[in-house]
Structure formats: C-alpha cells, structure tokens
C-alpha cells in the first residue's frame, strides 16, 4: 500500500458568481521515500493540490469529492483535532515565502521550541536541543547564535533553511514543498534543492515538490505530474517525461526552458494563457492553445473541442490527449 494515495480529488470554490472547480479528478500515489513533482503554469492547480493534501483549503473552498488516504486513513474526512496530530507531525509543509511563515516577533529558537512542544511532551531544554540538531542538519552556520536571532536578521536563503529545519523537527514521513525557492537567486535555489534532496534520501522522507520549472523537477524528482486547468494531463517517471514528453502542453513547457533556445534569440513560449477556472474550455482545456487541434484537412478536431480526453498509457506514462490516443491506436493496428 502506498504511503499517500489521492483518488479522484475534486476541490471547488463556492463564489457569488457561481461554483468553480479548482481540481478535477486528480489521482496519484506517493511511496515512502519517493520524490514526486507537480508541474504547471500559474493557475494550473498545483498549490491548491498542495494545500488540499493537509486539508488546509479555507472557505469558500471545500473538498467536493475523492479521498486523500495517508497510511489508509482518509485525511479529507478527519476532524480538525485529528488533523492536528498529522499536520507538522507526520506531514510537514514548506511554503513559498519564509517571511510569511516565520513569526517576526519571535526568535527562531522560540518558534522551533513552540512547534515541538505542540506535538510532544518534552521540556524546553530538550526541545531546544532538538532544534539545534535540526539547524545543524540543514548546515546553518553558527546554529547556537541563530536560535536567538529573529527572521529579519537572516538572509533569504538562511530563512528558507530555517523553514526546512522546522519542517524536519518532528521527523515527518512526507514533506510538501510549495515552490520553496521562488524568492531566491539561482545559486541559492540550487543549494536549497540539493539540501532537500539529500535530507529526503538520508531520512527516507517522501517529497511532494510543487513547481513551474521542469528543469528543477528533472534534477529533484523520480515521478512527475503535469497539471493544466485543475487536471492532471500527464504523469509518469520524470526521466521519461523529460526525454520524451507526450502531451503537447508538456512539450511546450520543455521548449520554453532557456536552454532550449540559442543565445541571443527569443525564448519559446506557449501561445495564449491558462484559462480562468470560471470559464474553462469544453473538451480538452488545452485545445485553444494547442498546435495539434486541427485535423488533416485543417478543420478543428471535434473530439478536442467536445470530449474530455481519457488517460492512455504510452510507455510508462499516462497521457490525457486525443492525438496521443490516435497515434497509439495507429501504431497498434
């Protein structure tokens, strides 16, 4: 049995202008020690998926269907009291902005001790010793000094290491990292990602990494989910997706990487933009931006316009695309 099993997850937001679906039939699994990437543009539903894993969706959002099973127990059906024993303890989360996560009026040590004592019956002295050990694990220089400093006294990279240390405080089974290097420069990004990978491998911790960067995913994860307009449109081993992307959207994301163009030339881009959740196109949501939406006669494909594509298996990957379905059927005949 997988450590985490998400099945047919449906998340909606009840707004004045009507209900919108942020996640549609999202399913995936995560094994112990596995690193999973969730990729897509802004608005694809990545962060909603991350928050939903810990049932952190606030009103007017709610889980309308599906399940999130952690060691066989459905987190979506847990009470707030039961979830408190899981959040931060068994499943930790690293948010995008460390300054929004850390309390500016408490020292680093006070925040770490508070987190530990919320879940364990230990003395302040014991909690402080654990906090110091975790700071050493994430290679914080002069950790004894850092414990008594405040967030504003630390650099961006240092604050992000503190957040990772806090996520590791209670030895979780899973870490959910929601674009953990967004505000950092490239050099620090690489250091943080290397640190996360090292810690997951050393402690056999499962990682769900939310990002828009397929370059980061290729270095960090073993499996990848590509999301578009609230749906998973391709999933499989990361190496296979990077080397032979099947869905036109995944191909577009890869072609948009800076290293895919010659120096001095314009970057490749996917035409158009992510649709609004309140006005998602019928059929395949990607069809207005897809270069393969026309048939051999130059007419729009009716299935792309009218039918939501089902998953088909291509190699070790699953792809939701009518064109890929037709290509596989042609190869099989």
CATH class of the domain at 34-55 and 78-229: Alpha Beta
Please tally the β strands and state the result: 12
What's the overall geometry?
globular
CATH superfamily of the domain at 34-55 and 78-229: P-loop containing nucleotide triphosphate hydrolases
Strand content: 15-25%
> What can be said about the biggest beta sheet?
8 strands, mixed
Order of helices and strands: EEEHEEHEHHHHHEHEHEEHHHEEH
Strand order of the largest sheet: 6-7-8-3-9-10-12-11
Task: Itemize the secondary structure elements and their pairings.
Layout: E1 4-15, E2 18-30, E3 35-39, H1 46-53, E4 61-70, E5 73-74, H2 80-84, E6 91-94, H3 98-101, H4 108-119, H5 124-137, H6 143-146, H7 156-168, E7 174-178, H8 186-203, E8 206-211, H9 214-220, E9 223-228, E10 231-237, H10 238-243, H11 248-255, H12 302-306, E11 311-314, E12 317-320, H13 322-332
Parallel strand pairs: 3-8, 3-9, 6-7, 7-8
Antiparallel strand pairs: 1-2, 1-4, 4-5, 9-10, 10-12, 11-12
């Amino acid at each position: 049995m997988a450590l985490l099993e998400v099945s047919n997850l449906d998340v909606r937001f009840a707004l004045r202008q009507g209900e919108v679906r942020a996640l549609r039939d999202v399913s995936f699994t995560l094994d112990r020690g596995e690193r999973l990437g969730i990729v897509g543009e802004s608005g694809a539903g990545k962060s909603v998926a991350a928050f939903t894993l810990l049932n952190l969706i606030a009103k007017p959002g709610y889980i309308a269907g599906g399940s999130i099973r952690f060691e066989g127990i459905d987190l979506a059906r847990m009470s707030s009291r039961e979830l408190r024993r899981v959040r931060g303890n068994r499943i930790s989360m690293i948010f995008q902005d460390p300054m929004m996560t850390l309390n500016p009026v408490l020292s680093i040590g006070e925040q770490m001790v508070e987190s530990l004592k919320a879940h364990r019956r230990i003395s302040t002295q014991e909690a402080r010793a654990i906090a110091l050990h975790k700071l050493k694990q994430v290679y914080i220089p002069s950790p004894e000094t850092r414990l008594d400093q405040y967030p504003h006294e630390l650099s961006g990279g240092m604050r992000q290491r503190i957040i990772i240390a806090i996520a590791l405080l209670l030895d979780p089974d899973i870490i959910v990292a929601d674009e953990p290097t967004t505000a950092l420069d490239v050099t620090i990004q690489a250091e943080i990602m290397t640190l996360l990978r090292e810690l997951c491998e050393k402690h056999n911790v499962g990682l769900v990494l939310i990002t828009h960067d397929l370059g980061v995913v290729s270095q960090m994860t073993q499996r990848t989910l590509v999301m578009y307009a609230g749906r998973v449109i391709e999933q499989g081993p990361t190496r296979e997706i990077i080397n032979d992307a099947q869905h036109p959207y995944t191909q577009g994301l890869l072609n948009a990487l800076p290293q895919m163009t010659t120096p001095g030339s314009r970057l490749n881009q996917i035409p158009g933009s992510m649709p609004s959740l309140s006005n998602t196109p019928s059929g395949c949501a990607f069809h207005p931006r897809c270069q393969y939406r026309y048939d051999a006669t130059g007419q729009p494909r009716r299935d792309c316009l009218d039918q939501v594509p089902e998953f088909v298996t291509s190699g070790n990957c699953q792809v939701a695309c009518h064109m890929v379905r037709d290509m596989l059927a042609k190869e099989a005949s």
